[in-house]
Amino acid sequence: MAMVRYVTLAYGDAPGIYRQSLMLLVSLVAHAPGPCELVVATDRPEYFVWFGTRVEIAYLDAALLSGWRGAEGFSMRQKLALARTAWPESGAIVLLDSDVLARQNLAPFVERLHAGDLFLHKHEYDLGRTARRGNRALWEQLRGRTFGAWQVREEDAMWNSGVLAARSADRALVDAALQLYDDMASAGVRHFATEQLVAGIVFGRTGRLCPAEPWFVHYWGNKAGYDAEISRRLADAFIEGISVKDAAERYREQPIDLPAEVRPTRVEKIARWLNK
């Protein structure tokens, strides 16, 4: 089977990013079939010495990161830029946010990936068919407009891009998504998830886009819960001095069984509003 390159991005001063990245890598050691490569783009390579040669470090300096972000820096353009930079000559690539975990054997996912399926984490909503106020506001910005070669359609969708995966032969799609991002930015579109928007449009138009959610959990909506459990598990592993292989075996036997999202209660919403 062809090689799969798993890539994640970890930079900055927040310790949680590195804890989450470490557990993501452990989950990939546990569940990703060979042959595979694990790559971390980071400005703090010292956080990943536990993995030794299992993980390839792509050093990320401030100038490179600034270039990936672009002039405005209003959304995670750097994810698309990293995907293009890390794109393999053959096989496939899986770009993962740090707050993602593999949750079962990835062999079926990899088989479908090599067969030509494209993946983003999950479908969120169709742009022109949503009732939520914020989503409708985005659609009103985009309705009937053309950005470069792309006219946005009612049936185009917003997808969560915590996981982005494609064969090496599909590199042109990421190039197109990055160009669409820049064209939207030049036209004045500003949205916190523009990188998700353009990936959903470009990948979605192929008719090959599928959800990666059956194989991965993206816990952006419950980071506090997951980070507490990840902290406990990593502390135990480091105190015991166990290997990455043993940590991966432990993760297979005892997966983190928490909800991916925890919605605030009515009381918590009111408290947040009062504290603004």
Helix content: 40-55%
Can you write the helix and strand succession as a string? EHEEHHEEHEHEEEHHEEHHH
What would the principal axes of the Cα set say about the shape? globular
- What is the rounded distance between the termini? 53 Å
| Spans where pLDDT lies below 50 across 5 or more residues | none
Compute the number of strand runs.
11
**How many strands, which pairing sense, and closed or not: the largest β-sheet?**
7 strands, mixed
The number of helical segments is 10
Percentage beta strand: 15-25%
Tell me the name of the CATH class.
Answer: Alpha Beta
Strand order of the largest sheet: 3-2-1-4-9-6-10
CATH topology, anyone?
Answer: Spore Coat Polysaccharide Biosynthesis Protein SpsA, Chain A
Round the mean pLDDT to the nearest integer and report it: 94
Q: Indicate how many domains the architecture comprises.
A: 1
Radius of gyration: 19 Å
CATH architecture: Alpha-Beta Complex
State the CATH superfamily name.
Spore Coat Polysaccharide Biosynthesis Protein SpsA, Chain A
Helix/strand/pairing category: alpha/beta
How would the blueprint of this fold be written?
Layout lengths: L3 E7 L4 H17 L4 E7 L12 E5 L2 H8 L7 H9 L6 E5 L3 E3 L4 H9 L2 E9 L6 H10 L3 E2 L2 E2 L5 E11 L3 H16 L7 H11 L4 E3 L4 E3 L4 H18 L3 H10 L12 H10 L1
Parallel strand pairs: 1-2, 1-4, 2-3, 6-10
Antiparallel strand pairs: 4-9, 5-11, 6-9, 7-8
Helix pairs in contact: 1-8, 1-9, 2-3, 3-6, 6-7
